[in-house]
Specification:
CATH architecture of the largest domain: Roll
Protein name: PDZ domain-containing protein
Largest sheet: 6 strands, antiparallel
Strand content: 15-25%
Number of strands: 13
Distance between the termini: 24 Å
Helix content: 25-40%
Oligomer: single chain
Shape: globular
Radius of gyration: 19 Å
Number of helices: 8
């Protein structure tokens, strides 16, 4: 088991146990967590569905052999989904089609389409296009290299309480600092500011924030864009992080650039 997988397993077990306690059961010394959650549920009708989504997402991360989802054929194309090959795996690099956000995520690995194995990305798109059914069956592994973080802000839009510092203007989703007293570090997911890279031979890289409450974070966001998206997302946050070297490969895929296999770790898909 590699270092990312070990960290993901520890984080999943810790947060799964925490989230399955009764609401308010994971509070520290104060008694207002339960009241805050009740207030959030009454003021924001979608909080319960978000909580259900977090539970489902974590269960899917535990399914090492993957699982099958059905997607409308009309929602699957090169325009609605960008695929990139990483270490002989076909990964989702981007999902411009908002209809897919509840079913699929950046860094999902597509293993099979309609029970057929995939020798190449082109063949995957061909199966999307030529299937006779209205629904396409995708066998996927959920967010193969990422981690889900679940935190609750004490005040709506209090981004500073997360304890995260974000990158420069061209790569604002990169986490350049993680303060030990912030909500993210205290959650244990991620458990540290850096992780081992996926395609760079395992060298340490920063994490990057790629999703907030099922909404993708643009790879070209500025730090201000990222903060604004967090502020608009409410008190309860589901944050998905990926290693930055992998995000850079996904960005190259979006730009249509071909990168040398020996330098990026990309496979032969």
């Amino acid at each position: 088991m590699d270092s990312i997988q070990r960290e993901k397993t520890v984080c999943l077990e810790t947060q799964f146990q925490r989230d399955n306690q009764p609401i308010g059961g994971y509070k520290s010394n104060d008694d207002n967590k339960k009241e805050m959650r009740g207030k959030m549920n009454s003021e924001a009708p979608n909080c319960e569905s978000l909580h259900a989504y977090i539970q489902r997402f974590r269960r899917e991360l535990f399914r090492k052999d993957g699982f099958t989802v059905e997607v409308d054929k009309t929602d699957l194309s090169r325009k609605s989904m960008t695929l990139v090959c990483v270490a002989d795996c076909i990964c989702i690099a981007a999902l411009p089609n908002a209809k897919l956000h509840s079913l699929l995520h950046v860094d999902d690995v597509i293993v099979k389409v309609n029970r057929q194995t995939l020798p190449s990305i082109d063949f995957c798109y061909t199966l999307f296009r030529t299937t006779d059914e209205n629904k396409v069956q995708l066998h996927i592994k959920r967010v193969m290299h990422g981690i889900l973080c679940h935190v609750i802000l004490s005040t709506n839009g209090d981004v500073d309480s997360l304890g995260l510092g974000f990158g420069n203007q061209s790569q604002g989703n990169e986490v350049t600092a993680m303060h030990s007293e912030g909500l993210v570090a205290k959650s244990g997911s991620p458990s540290r500011p850096h992780t081992h890279g996926v395609v760079n031979g395992g060298m340490l890289v920063n994490w990057g924030l790629v999703e907030i409450n099922q909404s993708p974070v643009s790879f070209d966001s500025s730090p201000a864009d990222v903060r604004d998206q967090i502020q608009r997302s409410g008190c309860e946050l589901a944050l998905v992080f990926l290693p930055m070297d992998l995000i850079n490969v996904f960005k190259e895929g979006l730009c249509g650039e071909r990168t040398d296999q020996t330098s990026t770790g990309e496979g032969t898909c």
